[in-house]
């Protein structure tokens, strides 16, 4: 804001800030044979929500022509290169293949090198005349990629930046590790924030329950979506419904079958993002141990809070006594506490809460809501679980199904199991 010193004061209007997904940036990853280099390129792509078109290692045995053809077919906006610590992992040959393969592309791709300026010199020489820039840290490279997504629009705040800011704020207020999980039509984010401000972020591009529904199927297969539906459906009918979601991404589901499909797609979108996070070297176990799980986007807008809770528990598989909250009209409401355990045969939960002390006997495989309210202190006999969490309107979800969560492979066993899980939290009229 600028104020004049003369008799008449003039104030510049505040710049409007809008939140949006930004422009897609297609990236290819070029990395040394060192697994740490591969993970670094994937971390950057996930943090910046880049659309990854391929990844090539320095020791790829294919011919120069084959590598150049793959890079040409990818049509990248940016190539991210991460050289290794030794000269054996030189990426000059891949940079030359990039230059050769994308020579006719307009505009030509940019080459961003993650490393010091000296390591970037031979790579830049091999890629010339492509524009090359070196970035000493992953944070600086992520900022550069986000700037490309804004296309010089200073008034645009990216949706993934908003989810990271929300995670930091909740972690600071709760003084606990917080996992923000956002699923929209074409966006899926898993952001872990710690009270000190550190953030691990995985933002999956074009993966969601609307326009990104087809990417969910392409990434994991149709059977991974079908396994979450609590009633039988044949392949052609399910495939048609999935691609109808991609064709009409803004349609609001009304029938239970449509809601169940969105819930299944949301589970797989989250699971896909967590797998990518693990492949990038992020601490997925720490994400599952978060004491607060905040749900956003379309995931938080399911008609029933129990639907969002069930999707989150199935997909994230939390391993600590945690509080699940969801975004509602610009604020967050507490949905339920989640108590995951895996007893040998049975366990006894000792609960202290404003309604009084009580004990819950839990058998292996149990899945039910306990009617408690407010702040709950929990200790357990027969299971390694203790802590404090907030129980919301749904109470406390006791999840003794085990980790990792396993679904029966046969429909005759799987469908009754899913019906029981949905009925336990009143998620669907099944």
Textual characterization of the structure:
The chain is an alpha/beta fold. The protein has 2 domains: 130 residues, Rossmann fold (3-Layer(aba) Sandwich), CATH 3.40.50.2300; 263 residues, no CATH class. It contains 13 helices and 19 strands. Strands 10-9-8-11-12-13-19-16 form an 8-stranded mixed sheet. A 5-stranded parallel sheet has the order 3-2-4-5-6, with helices on both faces. The protein has a 4-stranded antiparallel sheet with strand order 15-14-17-18, with no helix packed on it. The longest helix is centred in the middle third of the chain and has 24 residues. It is globular.
Number of domains: 2
Largest sheet: 8 strands, mixed
Structural class: alpha/beta
Q: Return the average pLDDT rounded to an integer.
A: 91
Number of strands: 19
- Strand numbers in spatial order across the main sheet: 10-9-8-11-12-13-19-16
- Overall, the morphology is globular
Q: Tell me the span between the first and last alpha carbons.
A: 57 Å
Task: Give the C-alpha Rg.
Answer: 24 Å
Indicate the percent of residues in helices: 25-40%
Oligomer: single chain
Concise description?
This protein is α/β, with parallel strands linked by helices.
What's the structural blueprint in terms of helices and strands?
Layout: E1 18-20, E2 26-31, H1 35-47, E3 51-57, H2 64-74, E4 78-82, H3 92-101, E5 110-114, H4 117-127, E6 132-135, H5 138-150, E7 156-158, H6 159-174, E8 178-183, E9 187-193, E10 199-205, H7 213-220, H8 222-226, H9 235-247, H10 256-279, H11 284-288, E11 292-297, H12 305-316, E12 322-328, E13 331-340, E14 346-353, E15 356-363, E16 367-370, E17 374-381, E18 387-391, E19 396-399, H13 411-424
Helix pairs in contact: 1-5, 2-3, 3-4, 7-10, 10-12
